[in-house]
Amino acid sequence: MIGVRRSITRLGPTIARRRSPFATLGRVAPLPAKVRATLVGSVGRENADDLAGRKVAFAAAGLLAGLVLARPPAAFAASPLFAAGGWRFPELRLQRRARQREAEIRAALPDVLDLLAACALAGMGIDRALRTVAPDVHGPLGDALRHALRGLDAGMTRSAAYRVLTERAPVPEVRSLVRALERAERYGTSIAVTLVAQAREIRAKRRAAVEEAARAAPIKMLFPLVVCFLPAFILLTVAPVVLTALQSFRGR
């Protein structure tokens, strides 16, 4: 459940406000009290009903699929496996959505920092720069920036608006950016220099991650190479030669 809690956190508070028909099923589902308490402790009460409903629905669908697709007595073994897979599927999907949203934020952040730095170099303050850039930023990062600006419009302090930004875009790069901006405001250093340095650092980290993934690619390709391509290569090249040699020996 730790992974589910992290996924809910990375997806942001908007998940809690979404109404789903699965929430009704989750509220009436006869789950054990220990399981429901675990869900509530992991994802919060507002998300627990929705997640519980999805788990129950997919587990039931998996159970029926096992009974329909497999014949007895294999169905008695396949159905629990299908049900367990359906029970686990909503958590895996939630974690995948969280990773995808996090990747979108990381990909958009350097360009946004460059735009903010250009605005700061033009003489704008950080509030004016955010109001200038945020309407043109799409995706989850743009939503986070606009929520932070709405907080400022509602009378929030800048520190509180920064907290809203980190809650809506909960990635380490955004938290590092907020800390850097707070230090720049506290000590009176240049906001533009801070933004450029943050963009350069984020791009360096992304480049290092891509290079690390490229170095790991040959190792990841080893398994499909051995399991898929090597047997096919043997069947297409070595096996005909061996069969021909055996036939020639038998003919003698």
Label this structure with key terms.
252 residues, 2 domains, 86% helix, mainly alpha, single chain
What's the structural domain tally?
2
Class by SSE composition: mainly alpha
Radius of gyration: 27 Å
Please give the share of residues in helix: over 70%
Structure characterization notes:
With 252 residues, this protein is mainly alpha-helical. 86% of the residues lie in helices and 0% in strands. Helix 1 (2-11) packs parallel to helix 6, helix 4 crosses helix 5 and helix 8 (139-153) runs antiparallel to helix 9 (158-168). The model is unreliable at 12-17 (pLDDT under 50).
Give the structure's gist in a few sentences.
86% of the residues lie in helices and 0% in strands. The chain has helices at residues 2-11, 14-17, 21-28, 33-43, 45-69, 74-121, 126-133, 139-153, 158-168, 172-187, 191-251.
Summarize the SSE layout with pairings.
Elements: H1 2-11, H2 14-17, H3 21-28, H4 33-43, H5 45-69, H6 74-121, H7 126-133, H8 139-153, H9 158-168, H10 172-187, H11 191-251
Helix pairs in contact: 1-6, 3-5, 4-5, 5-6, 6-7, 6-11, 8-9, 9-10, 10-11
